[in-house]
UniProtKB/TrEMBL annotation:
Residues 191-273 form the Bacteriophage phiJL001 Gp84 C-terminal domain. It comes from the Bacteria. It comes from Yoonia tamlensis. This is Bacteriophage phiJL001 Gp84 C-terminal domain-containing protein.
Length: 292
């Protein structure tokens, strides 16, 4: 059975355009088209002359990244430099359709993937588009380490991050987006949130996250320092959420989270010192194991 788009292509006189939809991690979807009039379908409005275009799609049977890029102009009403700097487009989902512009129901999805590396120059941007097969290029299988291979709160870990012992909400004070001075938030111990995450819940930076570098108690207050600055304005009064950190060690899993039954590491695996151990003249060489 042929599709409406195939029937249209068979006529030889085509009315075609390209439409792109970019869906950010916070659920905001932006639509763009190279047609000269607006189009709408699937609940998305595709705006023309928005400064976004894409190179010709090129895919292969291998697992390499699809050879395509989105090229656009930074503008106040579409994709802004501040949003790119804040990381709102990192990992955003991209869909591309070939559309009959006088009948948008005749269309074909040609690309589905995510945004990779973004570079900016001369008032514009260039974004790498990564196809679905990109995930298959990542290392697969399990590695054997003393430390845990799970991510805190994921299905293998099983820790409930909504538990009051794992999460706390606070009100931000004056901050540069990297260092936060907060109330003590008892009963959380010193360094409780170290290696965890800070998420902004309200304000201009809503939805943005940062990884916590250090968490120190001093003088009745708690100072949270992130590895990287959140590049969006955070003002006094904005709500933030702190998620506990995990250093992947067995004793932390057992004592901090009471979750040792789900520990995904191998704390008793012999180390390199055992692999290179040899008999010694001053040791007990009775033919037994060298590993004690």
């Amino acid at each position: 059975m042929t599709t409406p788009l195939q029937n249209h292509l068979a006529t030889g006189a085509t009315h075609l355009c390209t439409c792109w939809a970019v869906t950010r991690s916070n659920g905001v979807t932006l639509g763009f088209t190279d047609h000269d009039l607006p189009l709408s379908f699937d609940g998305i409005d595709f705006t023309p002359e928005s400064g976004l275009s894409a190179r010709a799609l090129a895919s292969s049977t291998g697992l390499s990244v699809d050879n395509t890029e989105a090229i656009g102009v930074l503008s106040a009403d579409a994709i802004t430099e501040s949003d790119i700097n804040a990381g709102r487009y990192d990992g955003a989902v991209v869909q591309t359709w070939l559309v009959q512009w006088d009948d948008p129901s005749a269309r074909k999805l040609r690309f589905y993937g995510t945004i990779g590396e973004i570079t900016r120059a001369r008032g514009g941007f260039q974004a790498e588009l990564r196809g679905l097969t990109e995930a298959l290029n990542q290392p697969q299988g399990r590695s054997y380490f003393k430390t845990c291979s799970a991510v805190l709160g994921d299905a293998r870990c099983g820790v409930d991050l909504s538990d009051p012992a794992c999460m706390a909400e606070a009100v931000a004070g004056d901050t540069d987006g990297q260092v936060f001075a907060l109330a003590d938030m008892a009963p959380f111990n010193d360094r409780w949130f170290e290696q965890g995450q800070l998420e902004v819940l309200t304000g201009a930076a809503q939805g943005l996250r940062g990884v916590i570098k250090s968490d120190a108690l001093a003088g009745g207050s708690r100072q949270i320092t992130l590895w990287d600055q959140i590049k969006a304005p955070i003002v006094a009064g904005d709500q933030i959420r702190l998620i506990a950190g995990c250093n992947k060690r067995a004793d932390t899993c057992r004592e901090k989270f009471s979750n040792f039954i789900n520990f995904q590491g191998f704390p008793d695996i012999p180390g390199n010192d055992w692999l290179v151990s040899v008999p010694r003249s001053d040791g007990a060489n009775a033919g037994g194991s060298l590993f004690r």
